[in-house]
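[scheduler] slot 2 assigned
[scheduler] job type: sequence-to-structure, two independent chains
[scheduler] chain ordering preserved from manifest
[runner] begin chain α
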Amino acid sequence: MTPQPKNMNELMNYLTTLEQRIETLEKEKSQLQKRTTEKKLPETNLLSQKFLTRAFAIWGHFMTANFIISGILTIITYCILFTLFGSFLQSISQSIPTPAYTLPTIP
């Protein structure tokens, strides 16, 4: 409820306080607008308005992640296989008897 001014001085005081409040509100509004414009979203195809652009961006991220994960798993698998295959070959080579003769050397 707005106060009813009884004379011209009260009305002028009331109007000045209202003007000051409007000025502070406008300053706060401009500060808030500056803050929101500073925190823009990154420019990426993931946020595009077009469906195909978003779809290919997601597909590209999926493929990149797939290559990284499959590369790591391949390296781990080869390490395990070489370890097992190496120990298997070593056990086989120890079980094969060596020949009793030697090859003649050419003078």
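[runner] end chain α
[runner] begin chain β
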Amino acid sequence: MIATQPTSHPAPRPARRNHRVGLGSVRGDELLPLAELRRRLGLGHKGIAKAQKMGLRVTRFGKCGYVLGKSVLAFFELLEAQQHPPRGGPDGGDDPGTGSAIR
């Protein structure tokens, strides 16, 4: 009988790096290149293009696009207001006539 070599298993593949791991914050006093904004927000090219179509202000200089941090924050404030409009009366209740939903 012929002796066989023990089969060796291939080395495990390294874990895939998630390109969205290094999410960061945006400050109002910053000027960000689009590539850095994409990295911080975890967005791809299509995500930034959609944000531009929805009103994100991008300034072009040379071949690069730049965004002011305060423009990013204003864009997300507007987006938040559109997605979650205030409800009801002056105190946020559901009944606009009385100012409070509970009586």
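[runner] end chain β
[qc] chain β: The mean pLDDT is 81.
[scheduler] slot 2 released
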